[in-house]
Amino acid sequence: MTNSPPPDPRSSRTPLGFDEFLAVVLALAALGGILFWSLSRSGRGFQIPSILPLVTAPEARSPVALTPQPQASPEPRAELAPIPSPAPEAIAPETPVTPRRQPVAPFPAIVPVPTTPTTPASPEPSPTQQVKFQDVPADYWAYPFITALAERGIVRGFSGGYYKPTDPVTRAEYAAILQEAFNQLPGSDTQSKFTDVPENFWGIPAINRAIQLGFLRGYPDNTFKAQQEIPRAQVLVSLASGLNLAPPALPEQVLEKFYVDADQIPNYARERIAAATTAGLVVNYPEANQLRPNIKATRADVAASVYQALVRAGRLDPIQSPYIAGVQQQ
Q1: In 10 A of CB 19, how many CB atoms?
Q2: Residues 6 or more apart from 223 whose CB is under 8 A from it?
Q3: What rounded mean pLDDT belongs to the chain?
Q4: Compositional bias (Pro residues) spans (predicted)?
């Protein structure tokens, strides 16, 4: 029996199959790729394009790959910045509120229109609202005269709803009433200056207007005496002068006929008062035949005579009153 040598251990290995060989190659390639990627990332200067697709997924997950993110972060923020700006532009045409509000605007403007006639600017329009004063009851002798003028803004009351009919009237206040009553009459454009009327006096426009219309004038010493309380005789003379009333043929007979106190009428006023009497401008209370020419005219006296002057001018309707003196000429 022949002794044979022991078998070689290397010869007992089974040769690798094709599948096993391919697996080994792939494993080595993967290990080599990983090793090569590690070396290239540490150097940051050596990259192989063919390997990049294999390591794209690890790069996105590695903490090292997040370092450049702060540089790219402003880009998304820059894209978000303009987003709010188009929002108002897109909303403006879509909201139907603006076109629907346009027809609503005229309604507040239409509401006050019916109220405008309630404040007439001149004596001609008929009054649309009544004015009542607490101290001028309906049975007061001058009630119709005062009320009619107050409704037209020619005379005004005081706070609290009072008219104070028995208070005297200054020449400046009387000029203001004339300005309101005869605001449409033509007149001159002269400007008067008086030594006793300061330039800032409230009644200068009314005084100038009354003088321009021929109702009033100053005194020979170039004074006006604006704060002087006007007597009844001056009121009647001013109205007859402003309306340019011609005196009657026999003024003295007219005065003696209608006034028991005709002898108290000043000489300068006799013809004008006779003309005012025949024109129906004189209203005497409590007696129609008692003129009392030199006493201070009250606010009621002035309202009654001014109303009668507007009747004479054809601008107001006559009022029936037992206190109207004289005979009105036609």
Answers
A1: 8
A2: 194, 195, 196
A3: 76
A4: 105-126
